[in-house]
Amino acid sequence: MVNAKFEAQRKTIKHHWLNGIRTAEEIHKLTRIPLRTVQYNVKKLKETGSVEHKRGNGRQYKVTQNISRAIGQNVRRNNAISTRQLANNIENNYDISISHVTVWNHMKKKGYKSSIPLGTPMLTNRHIEMRKTWAQAHLNDNWNCTIFTDETAFDLFRNKVRRWHKDGDRPIRKLPKNRQKVMAWGGISKKGKTPLFCFTDIMDGPFYQDNDPKHTSRVAKEFIAENGICVIDWPSNSPDLNPIENMWQIIKNNVEKRMPQNIDEFTKFLVEEWEAIPQKQLII
User: Fold this and answer.
1) I need a surface site. Which of 32, 58, 212, 232 has the fewest CB within 10 A?
2) Under 8 Å CB-to-CB from 199, ≥6 apart: which residues?
């Protein structure tokens, strides 16, 4: 189907052409229609005397080198652009009819993939320098006796697992307005895992050694000192340095696939999935 805006542009170009304005540059200055669109239509007027859009025969449009280059330029300018927006931009600038499916197939052919960006910590230059200093200071440490600990929140009804379905039959999962959470704490080392401790109550001073205020609280410090625990200093805003972070994602995905129906079942599955992770998977 011909774009209405595009059709109006063609008529405007033809109007100026018939009134004696024969160069694309002049028509572009008068109308502010994209120069490429004007050039294309002026060329058609010179060759055929018409700007009418030829109807296709139903076959898939073959992406030319110029269109391929334009698609790449659009994506480099805005890598969040949708294939529908891309197709619309190409139609408006090149006077062709192209579907978003054709654009999608061409992008896949060129090696493009649509992915959610990987999340990384928001680091300042100071954070980066502190991380470098920390890494150099601990480069030759013996990590065999180090326990990496962390706590995290697990959401019941997380709804992140992809599921197969046919067109018109997309799965639906009912989600409560206020989702229940379970907090969990655990530790991993070269020698194995600690038990996974799950709780739903608010904790006012648990042990864990990044720079979260509750981890550096007086209660936590007293507990550490009384039990003779040696704590490693930790650079700010650097949870990704802790290898246990990878464990949490594995457990969240595995538990969600089991589709727990209540908080007790959810907690039970969390512990089972924690215990099921083999020692060889603890990459430290």
Assistant:
1) 58
2) 182, 183, 184, 185
DSSP tag of 49: S
Q: What are phi and psi of 244, to 5 degrees?
A: -70, -20
Q: CA 32 to CA 24: how far, in whole Å?
A: 11
Question: Max Cα separation, the chain?
Answer: 94
pLDDT tens, residue by residue, 108-167:
898 888 887 777 788 889 999 999 999 898 888 888 888 888 889 998 877 666 666 777
Token pair recorded at residue 100: 């978003």
CA angle, residues 77, 105, 64, in degrees to nearest 5: 70
CA distances from 153 to 160, 201, 245 (A): 15, 12, 12
Cα–Cα dist 198/152, whole Å = 10
Backbone angles phi, psi at 255, to 5 degrees: -70, -40
Q: Which has more pLDDT, 229 or 98?
A: 98
Give dist(CA 108, CA 214) in Å, integer.
47
Q: Is the pLDDT of residue 207 over 50?
A: no
Range with the lowest mean pLDDT among 65-69, 118-122, 206-210, 242-246?
A: 206-210
Which tokens sit at 15? 């109007």
